[in-house]
Design goal:
By secondary structure, the protein is α/β, with parallel strands linked by helices. The protein folds into 2 domains: 214 residues, Rossmann fold (3-Layer(aba) Sandwich); 74 residues, no CATH class. Helices cover 36% and strands 28% of the residues. The strands form 3 sheets. Strands 6-7-8-3-9-10 form a 6-stranded mixed sheet, with helices on both faces. A 4-stranded antiparallel sheet has the order 2-1-4-5, with helices on one face. Strands 12-13-11-14 form a 4-stranded antiparallel sheet. A hairpin with a 2-residue loop joins strand 9 and strand 10. The radius of gyration is 22 Å and the shape is globular. The structure holds adenosine-5'-triphosphate (ATP) and magnesium ion.
């Protein structure tokens, strides 16, 4: 499913301008939405799943106007909200059955099959009779994704799905989403964890204070940071100065003091060399620059 967002604005009742003239195209496949706290990721997602009407703007999905074809588009959607909660009284399998009903699966035989298959896929079959609110954090997240996938959606929107997961669960989660996106669905994944994007998403957008700071592939983003990352050998005293001047990405103790990585165009005479950027460096580079642009413009 291809999504086109034009001149989107979201102003909340209290005056918070969460999205500012956003123009963005989201192609098929796995799409990463990256940005710091308050960037507008959840606001955008709530609009895309038709839970909230934006202040202004236009959105089409495969050419269909989102606001004129709300019902039709909703039946093709799966959504995992950032603050997903369960109904305490339901067992894991009952909860999933309930989600399937909500998604419009009317026949109980079809529903039972779908529920069992999904429990297997997310590794919750063994705990299907346990109350949903008694599951571990990682299991709850998996149940969350299961309810979003139960109706075989064409568009899946997951808001910060890996928060609080241990590294193994996180990898599992990413792989699960990758297999789903291979079934020609579009997945939009929001995160402020750079590593979640680099390992799975072909395309991405970087949001900052409600504005689009970048869109393209993660590789494009990295390319744009080339020449702006330095590894510096610093004494104790220099380290304090450098820390005031530039964004420091990493610090490793060395016999002369510290070996540090910074994002900067130039390092005014400190002893160091340019190194190849990774996505984390590129992220910092872009956030710094987009903020500078706005404050100067
Ligand atoms: N219901 C609301 N009423 C008023 N302001 C809101 C509301 N929801 C969000 N905002 C504001 O809109 C801006 C964007 O918030 P949003 O939750 O979309 O960001 P986010 O990128 O999802 O952040 P996070 O990474 O912390 O989840 C913030 O300034 C936030 O305070
Ligand atoms: Mg959010």
């Amino acid at each position: 499913m291809r999504i086109k967002i034009e001149n989107l604005n979201q102003v909340y009742k209290n005056g918070n301008h969460a999205l500012k003239d956003l123009n963005l195209e989201i192609p098929d496949g796995m799409f990463g939405l990256l940005g710091p706290n308050g960037a507008g990721k959840s606001s955008l997602m709530r609009i895309l799943v038709t839970l909230m009407k934006p202040s202004s703007g236009k959105i089409t999905m495969d050419g269909l106007d989102l606001f004129k074809n709300r019902k039709e588009i909703r039946s093709m959607l799966g959504y995992l909200p950032q603050d997903f909660r369960f109904f305490a009284s339901l067992k894991t399998s009952e909860f999933l059955d309930y989600a399937a009903r909500l998604a419009g699966m009317k026949r109980s035989k079809q529903r039972n099959e779908a529920v069992d298959k999904m429990l297997e896929e997310v590794g919750l079959f063994e705990v299907r009779d346990r109350k949903a609110n008694k599951l571990s954090g990682g299991m709850k997240r998996r149940l969350g994704i299961a309810q979003a996938l139960i109706n075989d959606p064409k568009l899946i929107i997951v808001d910060e799905p890996t928060t609080g997961l241990d590294p193994e669960e996180r990898i599992r989660f990413r792989n699960l989403l990758s297999t789903v996106s291979a079934k020609d669905a579009t997945i939009i994944l929001s995160t402020h964890i750079v590593g979640d994007i680099s390992s799975t998403c072909e395309n991405m957008a970087l949001l900052n204070q409600g504005q689009l700071a970048f869109t393209g592939s993660p590789e494009d983003l990295i390319k744009k940071a080339e020449g702006n990352v330095w590894q510096i050998k610093a004494t104790e005293k220099e380290y304090l100065e450098i820390n005031d001047k530039y964004p420091v990405i990493s610090t490793v103790p060395a016999d002369y003091g510290w070996e540090i990585q910074v994002v900067a165009e130039d390092i005014d005479g400190y002893y160091g060399e340019k190194i190849a950027p990774n996505l984390e460096h590129a992220y910092v580079h872009f956030m710094e620059n987009s903020l500078n642009q706005w404050t100067q413009g």
